[in-house]
Write a structure and sequence with these properties.
74 residues, mainly alpha, 76% helix, 0% strand, elongated
Length: 74
């Protein structure tokens, strides 16, 4: 898997799990499924950082998002 793609997927999965965490906490349930998705997202992000030579800078993330969207979306 491409490092840029894994970074973008990790960021999207992490962003989508935040409402699930808030929902579980507001219903006074344990956020088990949300914790698993956060672990998956964290694993993808760590894999991307280790695979990319030199890692990623914070200012580089929007460019990575646009590159991946341009590559995979028609």
């Amino acid at each position: 898997m491409d490092a840029d793609l894994s970074l973008v997927l990790g960021l999207i999965i992490a962003a989508l799990s935040v409402p699930s965490i808030l929902s579980a906490l507001s219903d006074k349930r344990a956020p088990r499924a949300s914790a698993i998705t956060i672990l998956i997202a964290g694993g993808l992000i760590v894999f991307a950082i280790q695979s990319h030579p030199g890692g990623y800078a914070l200012a580089e993330i929007p460019d990575v998002l646009v590159r991946v969207a341009a590559r995979y979306l028609p």
